[in-house]
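Fold this complex.
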Amino acid sequence: MGKYVIRRLLWMVLVLFVVAFVTFCLMHLVPGGPWDRDKALPQTVVDNLNRKYGLDQPFLIQFKNYIFNAVRGDLGVSYIYQDRSVTSIIMGGFPVSATLGLVAFLIAILVGVPLGIAAAIKQNSFVDYFAVIFATIFASMPNFVLGILLMIIFSVTLHWFPTSGWGSIRQIIMPAFALAALPAAYMARISRASMLDVTRQDYIRTARAKGLTERVVLVRHILRNAMIPVITIAGPELAGLVTGSFIVESLFSVPGIGRLFVQSVSQRDYGLIMGTVLFYAFAIAIINLVVDILYGMIDPRIRYD
Amino acid sequence: MVKHNDGLKVSRRDFLKTAGALGLLAAAGSSIPLGIFSTGCSKSNAPAGAQELSVNLAGEPAQIDPNRASWAAERSVISQVFEGLLGFDKTLTVIPVVAKELPTVANKGISSDGKTYTFNLKNNVTWSDGTKVMAKDFAYSIVRMLDPDLATEYASFYYPIAGAEAYNGAGTKTAAEKAALKAAVGVKATGDYTLQVTLGDAYPVFLQLMSLWPVYPVREDVITAQGDKWTEAGNYIGNGPFILTEWVHQDHMTFAQNPKYWGTKPKLTKITYKMITDANAALAAYKNGELDMSGVPVGTEKATMGDASLSPEIVRNADLTTFAFQFNVHVAPYDNLNLRKAISTAVDRASFVDKVRGGVGKVALSWIPPGMPGYDATLGTEYSFDVTKAKALLATALTELKLADASKLALKFQFSDTASNKTIAQFLQGQMKDNLNIDLTLEPMESKAFTQTVNSAKHTWAWFGWGADYPDPDNWLPQLFGTGAGNNHTTYSNPAFDAICKTAGKELDNTKRLQEWADAQKMVIADAPIVTMFYRERFNLVKPYFKGLTPTGMDGQIMGDQFWTNVTIEK
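Structure:
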């Protein structure tokens, strides 16, 4: 296991390097740069800016400089928020996105999985139909529509929660639900389907034939096996949630990293694009590793040597 | 039962491992407080009588260093914390602020050749830390703004200052050469309260430039000590009516009264700038009482006017901003004058303002907007909507272009792909089809790609807008229509126009100067490199208790943000 983890971490370094290079190339290849403004800047001003940010250097030298600095932990400065380092921007935004994402993830798991399980146990009952309707509605409703709906009901009409901002529990509830709706629906569907699938397996019939109580069959055999696909999707889902959502963060004015990432691309903020992409790649690689390790613990058929 | 326990044990271990993974992620940013455990809510439930204002900045300002700022949101911040030698009153007339009086030739503030300006400062103006604002602070600020290594975006506006262009363009020179060029810049503090600025040539709008934010004073000792951190709350020392007390990045900014303010103290004790980027969310925040003023989502203006409860709260104000379609006049068939005139005459601007802009804005037949010198209501009337005339012009154009019919024109229109621009493009497409039977191809582009295409004149026909940096034709004509000028994306070139720009730019007789600019604008309108469409108007909802709102044609991001000093809250 230790060797496996070390091997994976070494691969991760290579992956990050490739991600950095590809991003760096793409970023400079797309038309339009950070200084292309509606009101065009004079050439002298553009030259000064290019020199300040090292954009007057040859492409590969720029990349080399970036990597050397990044290895030392310096991700450079933002091209838009010129007084702020990329590291401080990411470290300001990520905890916010991660908190919001974790709350949304917990809501998704706590609502979605039990609903899916209940639907599978009582197949074709009221609970099942409810779960299917719930999943269909929330899987198909875009979160900006849901977000606005929540705002109209809970802020404008009932005055329970503020519409925007960050810093209190009341401010986290609406964005968390807006963010959790789709994954919760997804979790419900996956866990329902997976439960039904496992229930039909031969080893479940065997377990029942051995005379185990229904409770033991359910908890020990069905649930444990049915949760494997759920964990498979929970990993990437968690990674997606904690790295922030552009739409929900913009709608609820949450100062997270998801909004910044999209902004950085549209404004060609080279420093922030590189920083956030590398950070995302790192976070997702780590989460995937954790999920793979979890597999080994749950499923005895999977072993890492 | 043992087996049962085993089952539970596995699932609990899974749970703990999952929790561990989550903990790892949270730890990545653990040095920053997550801050979700406080129960306070930032809603502005100020007690009755509290002079607290909450408005929407609609996003994080890029950076709030006056010398480097170039965006509207940055101005909204800088205007509260800094004051220049000169400023604009609410009618956009230049007035003395830190300066004792407006320099004129009569009071010897301006030399008779118009090249030397002497500013006498008031001696009772203080910084927010209590020290005096002196001429050296302005000298430092102006020269710093021109520093090539600081790479400020408005530096080129100040190239009329002697030696400014040479110093700002010295980026690749040695340190010694830079120092020599820096010393040669024509800005000197000749006394504690006297600043002298020498220009390379006479430049009559220079006083307007001295009223803008890039030359507001900044503190050398603070910048030297704090570096890039000097613009954070607490370090941000200014001389204006308010101080920045809090800046939670990407979330909000808070201002309080500057206790050391030298002038009349404002009534407001607290201003909160929120950073709500979504227009629907901002409106919801307004309705929920979190904002005292808000815009409405584009396209909902009409519905708002029809809403019985909201319509009394609407405040509209004309902006010094004009929107137009610009041709690339060096690309066929847009190089044909009659075709351009035909198109300009075939566009129903009134219907555009009504249907596309929700009735907000004013039809524009000429370029310089109302509310500033140079506006001419009689100009461009030949382009009033007239389908018959447009068809006749088109027929002439087709003959000149030797084309059999309009379908051979193959017109293409580029725009930055946003929802509101798409509506504009589709409107134009409809007008061309209905009125001239021309098929227009729409070419949506990603925003920065579009900007680059236009800035490098690779477009054929595109949408654009221009807002005043300062309210003078000098800011509206040479930069946009002068041969080879930086913002001349129509590639328009007219030697007669260039010649007028040259003389008008330095004409010291103001009546004569404005007449010259009027002539120049006439040339542009006659040659139709642009199809002017509308003058922008701000459209906001303002709470009834929000009194003294003073909008101008040159506000920053927020309507009325140049005069929060006039505002009172009467709840």
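Residues 146 and 155 of chain B are 6 Å apart (CA to CA).
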